Amino acid sequence: MDFDKRLENQIEKDIQHLRRLGYAQELYRTIGGFSNFAITFSVISILSGLMTLYGYGLSLVGPFSIWTWAIVGLFQLMVALALGDIASIYPLAGGVYKWTGRLGNPHVGWFCGCFSLLGWLACTAGIQFGMGIFLTAYLGFELSPLNILLITAVIIAAHSIINVYGIRLVAKITDFSVGVHIIGAAVLVGLLLIFGRNNPLEYILHVGNVPQGMIIFNFIQALLMSAWTLTAFDASTNVSEESINPSKVVPWGMVVAVLCSWVLGSLLLLSLNLSLPGLAETLDSGFPAALYVIRTALGTTIYKFITIFILLAQFTAGLSSQTVSIRIIYSFSRDKGLPFSNLWKNVSPKYSTPVYSVLLISGATLLLCIFAPSLQMITSLSTIGLYFAYAITMAVAISERRKIQVNHGPFHLGRFRLPIQVISFLWTIFITFIMVVPPIGKGGKVFLLATVFITVYYFVAMRKQLGAEFKYTLE
Amino acid sequence: MDGQKNNFGIFSESDCEGSYTKESCGEDILITPKIINAFLRNHGLNKELRAKHLFAFGIGTVITGFFTQWNIGLGPAGPYGLFAAMLIVSWIYLTFFSVLARFSVNYPYAGGPYAYTRLGLGTFGGYLAGAATTLQFVSASALVLMIARKFVSSIYPQMPGDYLVLSMFVFLLIIHLSGIWVSGIVQIFLTGTALSGIGLFFIGGYHAPHINNFVTDPVVFGGWQGILAAMPAVMWLYLGMEGITMSAEETRKPQRDLPLSLMTGMGFAFLLSLGVIYVGAFYTDWSLLKTVNFPLLFILSKVQSEDKVLLATFGLINLGVFFTSLHGLINGYSRQVYALSRAGYLPNYLSRMRTKHQTPFPAVIIPGLFSVIICFAASFQTVTVLTLFSAMLMYLLVIISYLRIIKSKPKIFSKSRALLCHPFVLLVNLGLLVMGQISLMYQYFTSVWVILAVYSGVFLYYYFRAGKHIRDEAPEETAAISMQNKVRIEVK
Fold first, then answer.
1. Would you call the peptide bond into A106 cis, given omega within 30 degrees of 0 as the criterion?
2. Is B310 an interface residue toward A (CB < 8 Å)?
């Protein structure tokens, strides 16, 4: 009884806080701390991201690629802390788009939101395409582009159907996903370390046959593997208006999810590297590298069994990612921030979901998978979009740090705020830079094209509208 | 109805005004909500469980039955006979669980079978069902401990089997003493691991069945005697799932989650049974399985003999499976003993609570000690007979209680004549259970004296002690008294 009473009081406080921020409570507040963590953890999805790009990292610097995870993990923890600091003040659906709009102005908020949306779209496509490759290999089909594309299309369709028909099912699958990730990763790591060990611990310092002068260059390239996996942790901020005590649970959910993923991911990479049957043999197998290692080290039956966990993790991660993208589209179009906004924000009375937004996201991700020449290209684009959005958020946060200091929420960084923000800004700009600028950058051209399109649209349609909004906000 | 209700939603006399006639209102009830609430303050359990925990407790308790014992039925019945026995036993359990589900919605008490039988068959009936449930769960725990010892000594002979098994058992008792929340999480983890084992078995052994066993050699049907003899063996696929009902007072939404987890657990166990019997019973050399102790491991070791990692992993999971069942069984017996003690049938100290986590620690530890003693002192056959006999006796009593209640008070259960709970279906079930008991006695005739001795003790204990110390303020007793006095009972 006491617990129920406390819960009611907390929800009432949250509703008051939202009202002070200028919004009415329209969504049900039902999401607790664990579900918040679950959403972020399943979108980060080490079983999806790391397994998909493991071969990429291996081809560049061999088992040494594990160190990219250590570096990325450290800096991404800083970013999560810095974003959590802001999320605690503005527990609003829309994440970075709303924060930068509030801290800075609607113009910068809109730009930030556009890049975040681009990143999320590519992130969804990357997970779905990665799962397409794995599922094609698992089902025993030839890994031809057509086969992969057809299977990816089926996966996209399945995600879309679930998002249209069963929003409750999405929530249940997200919670279930945490179990799949933790049990799947724990079982895989345990089995590989007990039964599959082929190499000594020093093997993780081995860089393969890379010439001495190319190690740093290749290592920077290999950062993509870890940078793409350990991102998108602002997912839970999009459900802030449905969370109980969001000022506390959203930031903590992000930080804990990054920490857990960092630890589990380290163990996963370590066990894969120690079980590697041979670098050249793995890379020349014509099979996804991670799956090849598992199959060789643990035998066909265990491989078939454990891959079910990996596929389930990829499926749930793709679903969560698509759900977040739909929410961003919906949030954007509600503020008339997109062309044909009225169409995208239209919520189906039958299913209570923005059906056209779902179709838009599905179509966009499918197109991306059709026209992108490789998985690396899609994941690069995703990394650029998300990290650039974080960089904009950090820049705004640094310039408006007094506003944050005065209004800080229950989760705050205190005197460490500025150093953490500066480090986060430099880190996100660095990652964006290396992903854009050739020869490392693979998504630079598409990114520039998207930037031009966003800028043109801004000047044609948004500038005036956002200006009026800005004026209204100031008044 | 927002009147004054106690934790179990039993309406006080004032609630009856206006909505009930004077005749039906419980004027003669001496147990007021105030007394019950005071009683529950000292005897209440923490409400922490949800449907997923209950499902894990249900499936986890029976999971050992999929890894061992069912294959004994192949001897008298052969693959087809075993399959038929499995279908009959599944039908018995389906209807029995439907009855339990109906009871659990209206009477969500820790007593479970004791509470349900108390309603229809009075104090002695309730006591007998409670005693049978306790004996079933305590002896099943002893049996699983025996199986685990046998497993360790045959698969890992270099390991100190007895110490390993006992220390794991102590560990599980400690988990239970740490509170129902911890216990529920651990059970989900253990059940998930055990189900992974069955998944591995299906993936590794799906090609084990041979077409000859279906087409050219169907003579392996053992006749109706064979099916009857195989029924006790396949009962292990479901035996103990009824323990879910005994977590009623620890469930957040018992009216929703108890029937849901019972029926989904039943459905899931049925699907697993189909899979295991298909791959196992129709295995190329099924006749080899009649005498092996661990059939799934045996099949895998034959069809995947090269895959050492698979066999090693499966062996470890198989060991874990026994502890999954033990964990569920501990939960079952502890709640039953707690409820019987709370109601005065067993000594009061057995329902003492560990205040920090609200766990009945003597009810967890003392029957556990009995399990250990039985495990080392009794023979496998004796314990098997005691477990199966007690289980079937309890099923009989619960079904008879239900039939009596729907005859005398048909409005208590909604749709009381639905197909699965139709009196005719239940009477057929009673007949099947009686035949099962006879088959059991016939097969294990030499152990019948144990049943006679144990149940004589149960009767004598009631006559000299239990029947004289009943506490009417216990929720199970209050519910039964209220029903007898025609007072409406509404559970929150």
1. no
2. yes
Q: Is A197 left (phi over 0), alpha (psi -120 to 50) or beta?
A: beta
Each domain of chain B, given as residue ranges in start order, spans 46-484
Residue A177 lies in a domain: yes
Closest CA to A43 of A190, A187, A170, A137: A170
The pLDDT tens digits for A30-73 are: 667 777 788 788 888 898 889 989 999 999 999 999 999 999 99
Interface test with B, best of A176, A301, A302, A308 (most B CBs within 10 A): A301
pLDDT digits 0-9 by tens, A342-379 = 888 888 887 777 889 899 999 999 999 988 768 888 88
Interface check for B426 against chain A (CB to CB < 8 A): the answer is: no
- The pLDDT, as a whole number, for residue A27 is 57
pLDDT at B368 over 50: yes
CB-count burial class (<10 Å; 0-12, 13-18, 19+) for A144: exposed
Pairwise CA distance, residues A143 & A136, whole Å: 6
CB nearest B203 (choices: A183, A195, A305): A305
- Give the 3-state secondary structure of residue A64: helix
- CA–CA–CA angle B71, B313, A200 (5° rounding): 165
Tell me whether residue A25 is in a domain: no
Among residues A246, A242, A286, A293, which one has the least CA distance to residue A270? A293
- Residue B5 DSSP code: B
Q: B144 CB contacts (<8 Å, ≥6 apart)?
A: B64, B322, B325, B326, B329
Do the beta carbons of residue A102 and residue A88 sit within 8 Å? Answer: no
Check the CA dihedral B410-B416-B422-B428 and report its sign: negative
Q: How far apart are CA A335 and CA A357, in angstroms?
A: 14
Name the band, by pLDDT with cuts 50, 70 and 90, for residue A214.
Answer: confident
Q: Which of A306, A17, A318 is nearest to A183 (CA)?
A: A306
Please say whether the beta carbons of A393 and A100 come within 8 A: yes
The tokens for B28 are 């003669």
Across the interface, of B192, B196, B307, the residue whose CB is closest to A301 is B307
Return the residue matching tokens 């298909």: B278
Kindly determine whether residue B313 and residue A195, on different chains, have CB atoms separated by under 8 Å. yes
Q: Name the least confident of A264-278, B189-203, B438-452.
A: B438-452
Number of domains forming the structure of chain A? 1
Chain A contacts of B204, Cβ < 8 Å? Answer: 301
Task: Please report, for the domain that includes residue A244, its CATH number.
Answer: 1.20.1740.10
Contacts of B302 (CB under 8 A, 6+ apart): B208, B283, B285
> Considering only A118-122, A180-184, B51-55, B151-155, which range has the smallest mean pLDDT?
A180-184
Q: Which CATH architecture has domain B46-484?
A: Up-down Bundle (1.20)
Give A298's contacts in chain B (Cβ within 8 Å). 309-310
Mean of pLDDT values over A190-209:
90
Q: Is residue A108 part of a domain?
A: yes
- Which tens digit of pLDDT belongs to each residue from A74-120? 999 999 999 999 988 888 777 788 889 888 888 999 999 999 999 99
- Secondary structure class of A314 (helix, strand, coil): helix
What's residue B215's pLDDT? 61
pLDDT, chain A, mean: 86
Structural domain span for residue A464: 31-474
Q: What pLDDT does B36 receive?
A: 62
Our separate counts of H helices and E strands in chain B read 17, 0
Residues 6 or more apart whose Cβ sits within 8 Å of residue B198:
B63, B66, B272, B275, B276, B296
The answer to whether position A38 is within a domain reads yes
Residues 170-199 of A with CB under 8 A from B: 179, 183, 187, 191, 195-196
State whether B309 and A305 contact (CB < 8 Å): no
